[in-house]
Specification:
The chain has about 700 residues and is of the alpha+beta class. It is about 50% helix and about 20% strand. The chain has 14 helices and 20 strands. The protein has a six-stranded antiparallel β-sheet. A five-stranded antiparallel β-sheet has the order 11-20-19-16-17, with helices on one face. Strands 12-13-14-15-18 form a five-stranded antiparallel β-sheet. Strand 16 and strand 17 form a beta hairpin. Helix 4 runs parallel beside helix 9, helix 5 runs antiparallel to helix 9 and helix 11 packs across helix 12. It starts with 11 loop residues before the first helix and ends in an 8-residue tail after the last strand.
C-alpha cells in the first residue's frame, strides 16, 4: 500500500519555514520600526538646524524693526518667515517678555506636536553699543517632519515585504526539494517493507553526501539488508526448533517409557524404541542390549558380583523406511549371560563417562552410567555416519541419563525385595532376641541409675566444699576498707570460678601510713585458691617483719620459693601511702605496671615492674627496687591484675596497658569507685564477652582535691 502524497502545507519544510519566518518577520518588523524612528529623529534634527538658520536670515532686520518699534515691518517679516516650508509659526517678545507680534502656530501648554528655536534680538547702534530688544521664537511641527519622511517610510516597508516574500518562496522551494521530497521517498520505502517476507531494498534520495538525509538513506539500506538476513536466520532457527521439538517429544515419550517400568529389560526396550526414532539409520539395523544383574539370576555364575544379560536383536526396516521394534523381533532375540558388556574396555575410560555415547565405525555405543557405575550399554549397528550430527549425540546422551536412573531404580527395587525376604527370615527369631535384649538393657539401666546416684552425691559434697572454700577465701579479703585522711579507696573483685587465685587488701599500718597489696597466683580454680591462702599468709608474716615494700617482697619471695610447687608462682605489688606527706612507696614483683592519672597536668604516670615474679627463685634484696612518688591532690592510683589488659577482641588483639591508660585518662574525672566499675566493664566490652577468662581484681586510691584558701 503506497502512502498518500504529502501536501505542501503539511510538509516538514513548510512547518520549519513557518517557525523560522515567524521569528524572521518579528525581527524584520522591529528593525524596520527602529529604522523609521531613527529616520524621523534625523529629519527632525535637520529641521531644527533650518530653524537656527532663520537667525542669520532675519535676525538683523527684526532687531532694527524692534528698535524702531516698527510693528508693520515686524509683522511683514514674521509672515515672510512662516512662508518657509519648515516654519509653521513665529512670535516676538520684548525685553519684558511681553508678546509684541505673532503669526501662525505658536506653542501652547496642550499642544505637544510643536517644537522650535529661540534667539535674542540684539541691536547695535552707530557707536557700537549693543542692547537686547527681546527674543524671537520660530516653530515647526511633527506634521512637517512626517511630510518629509513619509515616502521614505513607504519605501522601507516595501523593501521589508519584498525581501520577506522572496525569502519565503526561495526557502519553500529549496526546502521541499532538499528535505520534503527525500523524506517522502524514505516514508514510501519504509511503508513498502514487509516484515513477514522482507526483500532487500535500496533507495537513493538524490542528496549531497555527508548530511542527515544521506545517513538516513544508508541506515535504511543497511536496515533492509539486515532485516532480510535476520528473516533468513529466523527461518533457519524455526526449522531447527521444529526438529528439536520433534526430538524433545521423542525424548519425552522415551523417558516416560523407561521410567514407567521397574523391569530392566522393559526399560532397555523402551530406550531402543526412542533411539530408532531419533537417530539416522541405514536399511540394516542390529541391536545388542547389555544390562547387569545380580548373580542369583544367573546360577552358572555364582561367584561373580555382577553378571550381564545379553540380548541380540535384528530389526527389519519397513517399506516406508521407518524402523520399529516389534514383538516378533523380541521373540527371535538371542539371549545369553556375559561377564561384561561389549566394548567395556573403551567404555571404562574416564573421558567416555563425560562425553556419553561413542561411534565405533557404524555402531553407536550408548553406555548407561550411574555415579561412575557402568550398568550396561546399547549397541546400535547401522548408523548413517554422514547424517549423524552433534544434535543427535546430545539427544542420545540425554536419553542415556534417564535410562541410567531407571536401571538404578529397578536394581534398587530388586535389592529391596531381596532385603525384605531376608528381613522376613530374621523376623522369625526376632521376638526371642527382643526379650533377651530387653533384659540386658534393664540390667544396664539399673547399674547406670546406681552410678548416677553415687556421682550426684559426690558432686553435692564437692559443691558444699567449694562453697565453704569460697566463704573461707572471703575472709582473706577485707570486710571494709579503711578511711584514709584526705583520700578515698575502692576495690572491685570477681573470680572466674567459684573460688579464685587473686588476693588483695587495703589496711592501716599506723596512724598515717596505709598498705595496698594485690597478688595474682598462676592459674585459677581450686589449686590457685589454695595457693592464695599460702601467699596471703606469707605476705602477712612478711609485713610484720618490715614496713618497707622492698623488704616485704624480698622476704615473701624467699619463703614462697621453698613452699610453692614447681612451675607455680605469683605476681605481687605492694604500696605504702603516707597521708601526711602524700608520698607513695611502691614495689612490684612481676606484676602489671600501676597507673596514676594526674588531672592537674592531664597525664598518665606508669609505675613499671621493679622486680621478678615472686616464688620462682630465691633472690637478694637488690632484686626488688622501691619507687617513691609524690602524689598531688586529685591524683588517682590504679592497681589491677592481668585479666583486664589480656582481654582479646574479635581480631585477636589484646587490650594492653596503652589502651587501659588512655581509657583511664578519658574517664579520670569519675569518682574512684565509678572509675573501677567503668574499667571493669571496658575490658568486657572490648572482648565482647559476659565474663573474664581469668580472676579479675581492681584496687584504686583517689586523693581529695584541696582548695587554695590563701590564693
Amino acid at each position: 500500500m503506497q502512502p498518500a502524497a504529502i501536501r505542501l502545507k503539511d510538509s516538514i519544510a513548510t512547518k520549519l519555514l513557518k517557525v523560522v519566518f515567524s521569528f524572521y518577520f518579528i525581527v524584520a518588523v522591529l528593525v524596520t520600526l527602529g529604522h523609521m524612528v531613527v529616520e524621523y529623529y534625523r529629519t527632525k534634527d535637520a529641521i531644527v538646524d533650518d530653524l537656527r538658520q532663520t537667525q542669520e536670515m532675519f535676525g538683523a532686520g527684526l532687531s532694527r524693526a524692534m528698535w524702531e518699534f516698527n510693528m508693520e515691518q515686524l509683522q511683514l517679516t514674521l509672515e515672510g518667515m512662516i512662508s518657509l516650508s519648515n516654519i509653521v509659526g513665529a512670535s516676538i517678545e520684548d525685553s519684558e517678555q511681553s508678546t509684541v507680534a505673532q503669526v501662525g502656530k505658536v506653542a501652547a501648554a496642550s499642544d505637544t506636536s510643536l517644537f522650535g528655536h529661540s534667539f535674542p534680538l540684539v541691536y547695535t547702534n552707530e557707536a557700537g553699543e549693543a542692547s537686547v530688544q527681546g527674543k524671537v521664537t520660530v516653530y515647526s511641527s511633527t506634521d512637517v517632519v512626517l511630510n518629509r519622511v513619509q515616502w521614505g517610510f513607504v519605501l522601507l516597508l516595501i523593501n521589508a515585504v519584498v525581501k520577506t516574500l522572496a525569502l519565503w518562496g526561495i526557502f519553500l522551494w529549496f526546502g521541499n526539494r532538499l528535505l520534503g521530497r527525500p523524506l517522502s521517498l524514505l516514508a514510501e520505502a519504509t511503508e513498502s517493507v514487509d516484515v513477514h517476507n522482507p526483500t532487500p531494498l535500496e533507495i537513493d534520495v538524490h542528496t549531497d553526501p555527508n548530511n542527515e538525509l544521506k545517513i538516513l538513506e544508508e541506515g535504511f539500506n543497511r536496515m533492509s539488508h539486515r532485516l532480510w538476513s535476520a528473516h533468513r536466520e529466523i527461518q533457519a532457527h524455526m526449522e531447527y526448533l521444529d526438529q528439536t521439538n520433534k526430538r524433545q517429544q521423542i525424548l519425552l515419550d522415551g523417558t516416560r517409557a523407561v521410567t514407567s517400568s521397574l523391569n530392566k529389560l522393559k526399560v532397555m526396550i523402551g530406550a531402543v524404541r526412542s533411539l530408532l526414532k531419533g537417530v539416522p539409520l541405514d536399511r540394516s539395523v542390529q541391536v545388542i542390549l547389555s544390562f547387569r544383574d545380580t548373580p542369583h539370576q544367573a546360577p552358572d555364575r555364582p561367584t561373580t558380583r555382577y553378571c550381564y544379560n545379553h540380548y541380540q536383536i535384528r530389526i527389519e526396516i519397513s517399506a516406508t523406511g521407518t524402523p520399529a521394534l516389534r514383538q516378533s523381533h523380541l521373540d527371535d532375540a538371542v539371549h545369553a549371560y556375559t561377564d561384561s558388556p561389549r566394548y567395556s574396555d573403551q567404555l571404562a575410560l574416564g573421558a567416555t563417562r563425560v562425553t556419553g555415547c561413542v561411534l565405533i565405525q557404524d555402531t553407536l555405543v550408548v553406555p548407561i552410567w550411574y555415579n561412575n557405575e557402568l550398568l550396561g550399554n546399547i549397541d546400535l549397528q547401522g548408523i548413517q555416519l554422514n547424517h549423524f550430527q552433534s544434535d543427535d549425540k546430545d539427544f542420545v546422551d540425554t536419553l542415556s541419563q534417564s535410562i541410567g536412573l531407571s536401571l538404578k531404580e529397578a536394581e534398587i527395587t530388586e535389592a529391596l525385595r531381596h532385603a525384605n525376604e531376608a528381613l522376613e527370615e530374621l523376623n522369625a527369631n526376632l521376638e526371642q532376641k527382643v526379650i533377651q535384649r530387653t533384659t540386658e538393657l534393664q540390667a544396664a539401666n539399673t547399674q547406670l541409675t546406681a552410678s548416677y546416684e553415687t556421682i550426684k552425691t559426690q558432686q553435692d559434697l564437692l559443691n558444699d566444699e567449694l562453697a565453704q572454700a569460697r566463704e573461707t577465701q572471703a575472709t582473706l579479703l577485707p570486710e571494709r576498707l579503711p578511711k584514709i585522711p584526705g583520700a578515698h579507696v575502692a576495690c572491685k573483685y570477681s573470680s572466674m570460678e567459684q573460688i579464685g587465685g587473686d588476693f588483695y587488701n587495703v589496711f592501716a599500718i599506723d596512724e598515717h601510713r596505709y598498705g595496698l597489696v594485690v597478688t595474682d597466683i598462676t592459674g585459677h580454680g581450686v589449686v590457685a585458691a589454695l595457693l592464695s591462702f599460702m601467699v596471703s599468709s606469707v605476705f602477712w608474716e612478711s609485713q610484720k617483719q618490715s614496713v618497707s615494700p622492698q623488704l616485704v617482697l624480698t622476704y615473701a619471695n624467699n619463703v614462697l620459693e621453698e613452699k610453692l610447687p614447681n612451675e607455680k608462682f605469683a605476681s605481687m605489688v605492694y604500696a605504702v601511702y603516707d597521708s601526711q606527706t602524700r608520698k607513695l612507696t611502691y614495689c612490684s614483683g612481676g606484676h602489671p605496671e600501676a597507673l596514676i592519672y594526674r588531672p592537674s597536668t592531664q597525664e598518665i604516670i606508669r609505675l613499671s615492674q621493679t622486680g621478678m615474679l615472686v616464688g620462682l627463685f630465691s633472690a637478694p634484696i637488690s632484686e626488688y627496687t622501691e619507687i617513691e612518688v609524690d602524689l598531688l591532690p586529685g591524683d588517682k592510683l590504679l592497681l589491677y591484675t592481668d585479666a583486664i589488659i589480656e582481654a582479646i577482641d574479635e581480631n585477636g588483639y589484646t587490650l594492653g596497658v596503652p589502651r587501659l591508660a588512655q581509657f583511664l585518662k578519658n574517664h579520670g574525672h569519675l569518682p574512684i569507685q565509678d572509675l573501677l566499675d567503668q574499667v571493669y566493664r571496658y575490658g568486657l566490652s572490648y572482648a565482647n564477652q559476659p565474663a573474664y577468662n581469668d580472676d579479675c581484681t581492681l584496687v584504686g586510691l583517689e586523693l581529695e582535691l584541696q582548695l587554695d584558701l590563701e590564693g
